[in-house]
Amino acid sequence: MQPVLNQLYFSDRYNELLDGRGQPRPHWQALVSQLESEEPAVMRKRMEAVQRQIRDNGVTYNVYADTHGVQRPWDLDVLPLIIPSHEWQHIAAAVAQRATLLNQVLLDVYGEQRLFASGQLPPALIYGHNGFLPSCVGIPHYDNIALHNYAVDIARSPNGQWWVVSDRTQSPTGAGYALENRTIISSVFPEMFRDLNIERLSGFFASMRDSLAHWGHRVAQNQAQTVPGIAPLSQGEPPLVVILTPGPYNETYHEQSFLAGYLGYPLVQGNDLTVRNGVVWLKTIAGLKPVHAILRRIDDDYCDPLELNAESLLGVAGLTQAARLGNVLIANALGANLLQSGALLGFLPNLCQSLLGESLHMPSVATWWCGESAALEYVIQHLDDLVIKPAYPQMQSSPIFGEDLNATQKEALIARLRAQPGHYIAQEQVDISHAPVLSNHHHQPQMGSLAVSLRVYAFATPNGYAVMPGGLSRVASGKDSRVVTMQRGGTSKDTWVLSEFTQSAFSLLRKTTSSQDLVRENTSLSSRMAENMFWYGRYSVRNLQKAMMLRATLRALLEYTPESREGEWPTMQGLCQWFDLLPSPKDDEEWAKWQPYSDDDIEPLLVQAVFSQQSGSLATSVQQLYQQAFNLRERISNDHWRTVNVLSRQFITRHAHATLQDAMSYIEQAVNHFVTLTGFAMDWMTRDLGWRFMSLGRRIERLQFMCVLLSRALQMPQHSNLEWLLQVTNNLVTYRARYASQPEWLPVLDLLLMDGNNPNAIVFQIKGLVKYLEEMDAHDNAGGIAAELKACWQALLQLDPDTCFMQGSPELSAWLNHTYEVTLTLSDRLSLRFFSYASPVVISGH
Question: What stretches of 336-472 show up as alpha helix (H) in DSSP?
Answer without folding.
Answer: 348-356, 373-381, 407-419
